[in-house]
Amino acid sequence: MHIGLIGGIGPAATVAYYQRLCAEMRRRQAPLEVTIVHAQTMDVVDRFNRDRREEQAEDYLRLIRRLQAAGADCVAITSLGGHFCFAETRAISPLPLVSAIAPLDEFFASRGVMRIGLLGTRLVMQTRLYGQLARTEAVAPGDDIAEIGQAYQDMAIAGECTEDQRRLFLEAGRRMVEDQGAQAIVLAGTDLNLAFDGCDPGYPVIDALDVHVAVLADLASGLRNLEEVADDQ
User: Fold this and answer.
1) Digit-coded pLDDT (tens) for 121-132
2) Cross-referenced SUPFAM superfamilies, in alphabetical order (predicted)?
3) Same domain, 45 and 111
């Protein structure tokens, strides 16, 4: 199956998706067909901050049509923040959309993780992954949630993580584990690999990107079909 990726939001997340999808398909000894299109980061950030869902969905539609013309069978958005208009995009998309959020609830429950702490954009944290977790309880940072959300947005745009930003994210995760009872911290922003890769924060970390990549790899290698995935969303 030919996988289409909407990238650019931000560049580091797009690179991480491509690298990990390639590595997973290589591990499975299966071929990969993938096409990536580029969303304009600042346009997405502006619409995200103003909650312009229909406007962003229309822009995604333009990119999805480009992926369709390239032969893609399905589409994934390489950003959890970029999922803020997922429902609006799915309603007008000519190709099936593969959610990065829907598989997470099943993943957590299957591993006995019933309470998670979220790091990502302000909206992702405040809405507890857009309210799409049914079997898992989610907690978010407290008074500094706006600061963390802004730091994440700045990091995603820059494509690099400063030491101050890294300390902010690591400390926020620690507090959610120690003070709010989170069993694991979920990197619910796909650019957070910039802060956490190669780092041992002293608590369990689950990267939402890896869960999404596993679903895409299952589709690409024929282990799952689009109807199965659509039923889970």
Assistant:
1) 999 999 999 888
2) Aspartate/glutamate racemase (SSF53681)
3) no
